[in-house]
Write a structure and sequence with these properties.
By secondary structure, the chain is α/β, with parallel strands linked by helices. It contains 10 helices and 7 strands. Helix 2 packs across helix 5 and helix 9 packs antiparallel against helix 10. The longest helix is centred in the first third of the chain and has 31 residues. The termini are far apart. Bound molecules: S-adenosylmethionine.
Length: about 280
């Protein structure tokens, strides 16, 4: 076979593979997995969240579909936010593609969401998914005070974000959050916790990824996070692990001056100890 023929066959092969990846695969996925408006799936909140992303790029839509099914966040968040009754204004700091924010919009039909993320692409996706019920800006903690956003919120979310910010930035962010929580409003924060031993596969893969992209992460223990919250004037009412995974923890807190379930909350050390015991039960 002549060299020209080999090059032609190679080019054809690559061309067919690219068409498959770029056109056939997305079309197949959409035919098989898309939520049809008016179907039973579209009555469920998960289906409605997926519908918000279905007209966006296949990657984003598939990411959302996967996250909704695999992240224990969506089984646990309803309990953590439900006592924050009458939620109308939500701030999501580090909203990513806005999946948790969209779940909030489905769970609290009267609510509006205000969100931020430093990543332009994520801001665009989240803004499209929220539609008229949301505002998203390109910003990041500790710069959470945004002109045009309400001065107070019923619920503030900060999910898997705090390892991106230094101790000084975390302190300043918590102070600003404290100032912006309405009476009875709450902060719901999930954080990545460093393992005491070798860590899970996911932890180790994430460490490799961070090394490759040169990202510096600021991990904190459960006690350090609780302590920082209490020092800032937040009452921590819950610290428990997410999805049975000691590398991921929930924290729920309210402003010290507010009323509600945070009243009589335990000191940070006690909360952390209780959380560790639950883990071993
Ligand atoms: C692991 S993702 C979590 C996204 C979203 N909260 C969720 O739970 O799906 C972390 C997000 O934090 C964002 N981020 C990085 N630095 C940040 C900062 N200083 N303030 C707010 N968000 C930040 C990243 O761009 C990314 O979207």
């Amino acid at each position: 076979m002549s060299p020209h023929a080999i090059i032609l066959i190679l080019c054809l092969g690559v061309g067919v593979a690219l068409v498959g990846i770029a056109i056939v695969m997305p079309a197949l996925l959409r035919t098989c997995l898309a939520v049809k408006a008016g179907s039973d799936a579209a009555q469920d909140w998960r289906g409605r969240v997926q519908l918000r992303y279905q007209n966006l790029r296949t990657y984003h839509w598939m990411f959302v579909r996967f996250k909704l099914r695999r992240d224990p966040m969506f089984l646990e968040l309803p309990d953590l936010v439900q006592a924050a009754a009458n939620v109308r204004t939500i701030l999501d700091v580090g909203c990513g593609y806005g999946v948790a924010g969209c779940a909030m919009l489905e769970w609290f039909p009267q609510a509006a969401i205000y969100a931020m993320d430093p990543d332009t692409a994520r801001v665009g996706v989240a803004a499209s998914a929220f539609g008229e019920r949301g505002q998203v800006v390109q910003a990041g903690a500790p710069h959470i005070v945004v002109p045009g956003f309400p001065p107070h919120f019923d619920l503030i979310l900060m999910l898997d974000v705090i390892h991106y910010i230094s101790d000084a930035e975390f302190k300043l962010t918590l102070e600003r959050i404290c100032d912006r929580l309405d009476a009875g409003g709450r902060l719901v924060l999930r954080a990545v916790i460093p393992p005491s031993g070798l860590g899970s596969k996911l932890w180790n893969l994430e460490q490799i990824r961070q090394r490759i992209i040169g990202l510096r992460a600021y991990y904190r223990t459960v006690d350090q996070i609780c302590q920082r919250m209490v020092e800032t004037g937040l009452k921590v009412s819950c610290a428990k692990c997410s999805g049975g995974n000691p590398e991921s923890y929930w924290f729920v807190a309210q402003a010290e001056s507010s009323t509600g379930i945070g009243q009589g909350a335990m000191p940070s050390g006690q909360l952390a100890a209780q959380a560790q015991n639950q883990e071993h039960d």
